[in-house]
Amino acid sequence: MGRAPVSLSRLKLGKLKVVRRQLLQRYEHQPFVSCLAGLYGCQWRRYQRAKSQPGECCCSRLECASFTLLIVTFFLTLIFVYFWSEAQNDYNDFDWFNFGNLGFWFPWSVVLLVLAAALFTYIALLLVLAVCLLSEGQRLYLHWSHKIGILVTLSFSISATAVLSDLWSKEWTTLLLSFQVTAPFLHVGGVSLMTFLSWPIALHFFRMNKRVRQVSLLSLFLAVLFALYLVPLGMYSPCIKEEGTLGPAPTLIGHRGAPMLAPENTQMSFEKAVEAGGEGLETDVTISYDGVPFLMHDSTLRRTTNVHQVFPNRTDAPAAMFTWSELEMLSAGSWFLQRDPFGTASSLDADERVRVQNQTVPSLKDFLNLAAEHGRLVVFDLRRPPRGHPYRDSWIMRTLEVIHNESFINSSQVLWLPADQRSLVQELDPELQQTSGDHASIEELQEEHIVRLNLHYSYMSQEQIRKYASVNISTNLYVISQPWLYSLAWCAGVHSVTTNALHILKMLQRPLFLMTPDEYSLMWILTDVLSAFLIAAIFIFHWWRERGLPFWSGSRQVNEYSKFRTELSDVWSISSISVRGEAQNSPVTPSLPTISEEPPV
């Protein structure tokens, strides 16, 4: 019986050691926080980190400036990524522009998009890490390598946006047009982001000591939130239409044929366009030195022929200064396989590759006869020959001569685009469909007998299109190759579009993002209501947790601090019992480990 108190004391001492070990493990084992701090500031060990109560100063001035710069970089990079991703419609023009300046082909547009997306992902991950660390009550410390990465990303975003704005100012119009179809979904994304941010904001709000800070934080958050909630009231999109009011799909005109499937401005390209369902064919016409109109977009032959091999000393000579016999010596298809401008050359089979290699520069006569054979409309830009050219002053009449005497196309199939000597052309052949590339008034267009407008897609306006249609002037927009842009043109009532992607747009059965006003209202109201409910629940949860209130009847509390304090009380209780028990049975009081000891590092 004398040994019982000692055994009981040892049992209680063992229990004390177990509880203390558990507490120390809890103190040291924070894998989530360790991962966050390690990725954000390379602070993988517990002793490297410092806690900061939410609502109080979370970092030094330098770290605060770094966090602010991180937020600014995030939004600037987001703007550039969205801007450049929506500009995909004009990537081909961008790449050829660089080819003309640099002298070699490279898919700069895709590389720029991938680089921008990678940098944005990197910045977004850093921002998520920072928000999570603040939510865990950790002081922010950004590693120096990440600070350099932020500066590099910021410099890239600013410089790329500035350069592209200078060279491609029309792309900002594309950005604004994209909002007409993406705004409803961007609204959902913005509200979702604010709902996600409500968790750390609510945590900091209820733990702030100064009411001024609380009011400032909550006011800013609610102002942004309510602005997002009400944004749909001011949104406009032609694709939000009442059921049954959508007009027919715009007819498709192949831009230089089907340049994604075959070399541009070749017989093969135009045949591919006809096979893909194009109802019209677009090209560019130049007159050779001996008076043969032929198809060529550029002023030189360098880009789309092998002139550097056949005539190495005339690579930069004007295309119009070559005779027809010299032009027939050139290959107009081999460049397509070498440069693969649209990334589609791999889809060609062996026979098609051989056929591409054998393509030559076509004449206007052959082009018109192909269109006549298949009953297709034609539209072309007519390049005036340079000074010293034999046909510089008779280029219009020479072209009309081919249409009337050398081909069997009907004049009504020709959309006559050249503005020079329009009155004379109208008088000589009234059946030609007079087409204008100018955004002029209705009175001016009617005076010149214009029946169709050929405008860049940046001029897209549902109101203007309807106004022209009211006086029987149809509208053609160029060059539209992205499905979202074609969908917007369809909803706006455009009659036809010139495109590089006939085979893609022809498959669309209805516009993308098309919805009725009732469907749209239901979408944004449900989004706002669900967001408001979740945000209110998050704030209530933090309010309850900070006050240590139970979420259900019973003694169990959600507050982790209460649970930690209870276990700590158990430790002291066991410690005191053990000490008293051993003091009664032993002349020497054992040295017990206490909870105040620092954990081993």
Describe this structure as you would to a colleague.
With 601 residues, this protein is of the alpha/beta class. The protein contains 22 helices and nine strands. It has an eight-stranded parallel β-barrel, surrounded by four helices. 55% of the residues lie in helices and 7% in strands. The protein has helices at residues 4-28, 31-41, 61-86, 91-102, 108-135, 144-167, 171-207, 211-230, 267-275, 307-310, 324-327, 334-339, 350-357, 364-374, 395-406, 422-428, 442-447, 462-469, 483-492, 502-505, 517-546, 560-585; strands spanning 251-255, 280-287, 293-295, 377-382, 414-416, 433-436, 452-456, 474-478, 496-499.
Helix-strand layout with pairing:
Elements: H1 4-28, H2 31-41, H3 61-86, H4 91-102, H5 108-135, H6 144-167, H7 171-207, H8 211-230, E1 251-255, H9 267-275, E2 280-287, E3 293-295, H10 307-310, H11 324-327, H12 334-339, H13 350-357, H14 364-374, E4 377-382, H15 395-406, E5 414-416, H16 422-428, E6 433-436, H17 442-447, E7 452-456, H18 462-469, E8 474-478, H19 483-492, E9 496-499, H20 502-505, H21 517-546, H22 560-585
Parallel strand pairs: 1-2, 1-9, 2-4, 4-5, 5-6, 6-7, 7-8, 8-9
Antiparallel strand pairs: 2-3
